[in-house]
Structure formats: structure tokens, C-alpha cells
Write the C-alpha cells for this entry.
Amino acid sequence: MRFLVYDRLLGFGDDYWIEDDRGNKVFLVDGKAMRLRDTWELKDARGQVLIDIHQKMFALRDTMVIERAGEPLATLRRKRLSLLRDHYRVTLADGTGLDISGRVLDREFAIEYDGELLAVVSRRWLTVRDTYGLDVVRDDADPALLIALTVCVIHLAEKERERERETGKGDG
């Protein structure tokens, strides 16, 4: 199952549709402006909220929290620093862990469970500029959760890059 995301910086109040590989609008990422923390809702095509995404307020490291129907579903945080790859750790509500690694700012990364590939995010498959694909590899994977995780890691990577620019660390 492949989803297409028209890439743009995620900011407060940003809304955008995610389409399936046939061009049907499947999910809406609804950015919530005027909140104290970065917040989004992932909605289906009918407008039903499937997942809430928000930044954890008082965490030592940037942490994103994903909830379904008001219940915690997953927590995501940066795992370790690397010059070549970004690494994030996802802890699901049941204690299960997922790993996300790759070049997030380039939109080239993978989501894995226990070494098994769940989804791949890539621009390589697409010819449309400023678009990336989310290819869900396993049929039993939760596409809404994988899209929410993708929103989170891109947001955290963009925030990190912005901090580096502000402090002058990103001026190679």
C-alpha cells in the first residue's frame, strides 16, 4: 500500500491531504494553530479523527506523543546522533518498540519492528517534485500509525535543523 505526501514544512496550522497511489484523498493532517505545543490531528476522508499527535511539554529531549481515542498509542523520541543517519525510537503503549532510521530530511528512511521492515519513506519512486511516498510493506501494519510516525519524525528533524541554523552549527 503506497501513500503520496506533498511535502512542505509542517508548521502550526498546516493542513494537507495524503493520497493513495490512485490519487484518492485518504488522510488529512490537520495542524492546530494557537496551541502551546505543536499539535496535529490525523483524520480520515470523512473528517473523523483517527489519531492525535502532540509534542510532550516537559521532556528532556524532544518527544512526540501519539494518541488514539484519547488513549496513549505511542511515544517517539530521537535515539542517537549520527552524521549520516537519523535514529528515532518509538515506544508503543504495550511496551513494544519500533525503530525509525535513515535520512529524514531527505525523506529517505525506514520504520522497523524487531528488525523487520514495516514501511519505507522515499522520494526515489516519484517523479513529482516535492512529493514523497510512504510504502507500507506489511499488510497487517496500521497505516494511520505509520503516517503519524512519519509526521512526527519529519517535524522533529525540521525543528533540529532550525535549532542548528539558529545556533550556527548547521553552517558547514
Remarks:
- The longest strand covers residues 71-80.
